[in-house]
Write a structure and sequence with these properties.
Layout lengths: L9 H7 L5 E4 L5 H13 L4 E5 L9 H5 L32 H9 L6 H11 L3 E6 L2 H9 L4 E4 L13 H12 L5 E4 L5 H9 L4 E3 L2 H32 L16
Parallel strand pairs: 1-2, 2-3, 3-4, 4-5, 5-6
Helix pairs in contact: 6-7, 8-9
The structure holds flavin mononucleotide.
């Protein structure tokens, strides 16, 4: 899944991708910017658009503020060149603030409701997925609004202090969708056993964020490939150790209590 805020364009990612590609979407106050990106994503070969709903406003990231976080020299938000300030706004005066925080508060639409999901379905021309669903009620509403899948996510615990762990929220969301749409989950998937647990709790698939970045930092492309290899081999080991020849054999019977 390619982020809206990626440092290479969706066209470059589409040209390089060999597997199924999804576009992750943040909705800007200027909806034209988001609509244009969705259209570009479709043209670049994206098969779904995944609207993130866990960032109506930015979480209180004190380290980012203290460090005045912004994109380093040589990197920009490539999809938005010429549209928004693509290197993130500068710190204002001496007030501690991160560029990302200012981007979110100045550009993202914090007032979106379910109408915006209907709007996105109307313009997307491809399946719409919501990432950041954490409650049974929102899961039901997602189904009612014609969403094709949901991702249970608390944004890696980086938005709301004290938010439920996603494994806990997953059970409610799975009940809420009543088997009508797939439920994926992210947050803290680091080992094969983590994948098994989420599948046993009813997830159709898991998503992974930070491990790819750690692999990239440690070893570039090879580092990312190694992260995937380690996760796959660890998953196979966990399946063997629990007597599950296929993921279809994984069910709640694996869980204690
Ligand atoms: C550096 C960083 C950047 C992220 N950027 C985005 C983003 O642009 N869009 C999004 O939906 N989630 C973003 N996330 C959240 C991840 O998609 C994911 O929900 C979260 O990291 C939890 O998974 P993990 O524990 O495997 O990292 C970002 C996370 C990190 C750490």
């Amino acid at each position: 899944m390619a982020s809206s805020l990626s440092t290479v364009t969706i066209e470059e990612i589409g040209a390089a991708a060999t597997g199924p590609l999804w576009l992750q979407l943040y909705v800007f106050k200027d909806r034209g910017i988001s609509a244009d990106l969705v259209q570009r994503g479709r043209a670049a070969g994206c098969r779904a658009v995944c609207r993130t709903v866990s960032v109506p406003v930015q979480g209180n990231r004190e380290r980012d503020a203290r460090n005045g976080f912004k994109l380093p020299e040589g990197l920009d938000m490539a999809n938005f060149r010429g549209l928004v300030q693509e290197r993130m706004p500068d710190r204002r005066g001496t007030e501690p603030t991160s560029g990302l925080d200012r981007l979110v508060s100045e550009q993202f639409d914090a007032s979106l409701t379910w109408d915006a999901v209907d709007w996105l379905r109307g313009i997307a021309g491809m399946p719409v997925v919501l990432k950041g669903i954490m409650t049974r009620e929102d899961a039901r509403l997602a189904v009612q609004h014609g969403v094709s899948a949901v991702v249970v996510s608390n944004h890696g615990g980086r938005q709301l202090e004290g938010a439920w762990p996603t494994s806990r929220a997953l059970r409610d969301v799975v009940e809420g969708v009543e088997g009508k749409i797939p439920v994926r989950v992210d947050g803290g998937i680091r080992r094969g056993g983590d994948v098994l647990r989420e599948i046993a709790l009813g997830a159709t698939a898991v998503q992974i964020g930070r491990p790819y970045l750690w692999g990239l930092a440690a070893g570039g492309q090879r580092g990312v490939e190694r992260v995937v290899e380690l996760l796959v081999s660890d998953l196979k080991r966990a399946m063997a150790l629990t007597g599950c020849p296929s993921l279809r054999d994984v069910d709640t019977g694996l869980l204690a209590g």
